[in-house]
Give the backbone structure.
Amino acid sequence: MKKNLIIFGFVMLSGLMFSSCGNNSSKEKQTTTKEVAKVQYTCPMHPEVVSDKPGDCPKCGMALVEKK
Ligand SMILES: [Zn+2]
């Protein structure tokens, strides 16, 4: 009787762990795959000039271009 109870408990526990793990991994995959790509703007003449929004280069006044 005791052995049966232990086996039953073990099966229940492993089943619970399995189902919770499966749910977690599927949710994590959905959130990690959709990350917002950061767009940066840089001066064609001055690569050290990097801005997170379009504008003019502070060194030469050229329009910043999208960095890829
Ligand atoms: Zn520049």
Notes: The chain has a mean pLDDT of 82.
